[in-house]
Amino acid sequence: MAENTNIEWCDHTFNPWFGCTKVSPGCDHCYAEARMDTRLHRANWGPGQPRVRTQTWGDPKKWNKRHAAFFAEHGRRQRVFCASLADVFDNEVDPQWRADLFDLIAKTPNLDWLLLTKRIGNAKTMMADALHLQPEANRDGMIWPLPNVWIGATIVNQAEADRDIPKLLQVPAAKRFLSMEPLLGPVKLPRFCACGCNKPLEQAVDEAMDGPSALNEFQARASIKTTVGIDWVIVGGESGPGARPMHPDWARSLRDQCQAAGVPFLFKQHGEWAEVEGDYQLAPDDAEAEGYNPKTDCVITPDGRVFSNPADLPDDLLGRWMHRAGKKAAGRLLDGRTWDGFPT
Ligand code: SF4
């Protein structure tokens, strides 16, 4: 069991600071803002607002000391999710704070640190800056990149996948992962050349066709082994007030893509909305479907359009019948079982 967090995929959470700015559709219902700004008034969200450094920097050192016992108990290294209420690679954070964080990470080698960001484009440069800001004495003994750092990118739709996964692959890290929560649309994971160059498949094909062997497209594609380049994928629907539904087929597709590519897949939750049991695909003339309640139900199309009344569906589209069951009732089973893949 996790020691101080309810998050399924980590053992601890540590927040080096609070405060952030919304940068993605995944931020629309930011839990951290609702808690730390609106409810507790401990930090203000938005550009130009000062970030607030926390007083809990001693905790990871205590966890690190106790790790030997944890290892005996759990048979694996403990995972720390860093910055659940902020973003490590936020442009508005004092760079020295980030340097201090990487110093702390270097001094807690018994813990794996999971740095999940919605600003993956900043990660490579800011990590290099964090190294350069270390005092000389620290830098000498540091192995870089730190071997206990996993870097994750939050990806909520195809546009973010296309934009951010190539950036994630450029960041030096022990493991690279995706947190696809809240998943807001179907995503096809892009493929990359598996030789280690990390070039997108289409670029690698073009270069093979233009190269000295003058391969045709069929030969070029056949000659390139591909990978998704990712060590772990976490998928989940949105929960909390105003939560948007996730079409369950989006999660199924990602599970299937991960299985085909040999990537561990963790299904975290359906979120606030559950699919109504049975293959309930509604068409516009199903507006009077027995039991359908527009106050608690909706239909979602495969491309993510949501209608509270099935009669509003476009003529040529079916919508999956979803019910606002609440996070607990909606649960985390997908096709009758849990999916708890982790990287080894
Ligand atoms: S990046 Fe995270 S903490 Fe920052 S606004 Fe978005 S959801 Fe909230």
Cα gyration radius (Å): 22 Å
Profile the largest sheet: 7 strands, parallel
Tell me, rounded to a whole number, the average pLDDT: 93
Helix content range: 25-40%
CATH topology: pyruvate-formate lyase- activating enzyme
Task: Spell the H/E element sequence.
Answer: EEHEHHEHEHHEHEEHHEEHEEEEEEH
Count the DSSP helices: 11
Brief overview, please?
The protein has 344 residues and is α/β, with parallel strands linked by helices. The chain is 30% helix and 18% strand. Iron/sulfur cluster is lined by residues 20, 22-23, 27, 30, 32-33, 86-87, 118.
Describe the structure.
This protein has helices at residues 31-39, 59-65, 67-74, 95-106, 120-132, 136-141, 158-169, 201-210, 217-223, 248-261, 327-330; strands spanning 12-14, 17-18, 52-53, 78-82, 111-117, 149-154, 175-180, 192-193, 226-227, 232-236, 265-269, 273-275, 281-282, 297-300, 306-307, 319-324. It has eleven helices and 16 strands. The chain is globular, with a radius of gyration of 22 Å. The protein has a single domain (12-279), classed as pyruvate-formate lyase- activating enzyme. The protein is an alpha/beta fold and 344 residues long. The protein has a seven-stranded parallel sheet with strand order 1-4-5-6-7-10-11. Strands 12, 13, 14, 15 and 16 form a five-stranded antiparallel sheet that branches. Strands 2-3 form a two-stranded antiparallel sheet. Bound molecules: iron/sulfur cluster (SF4).
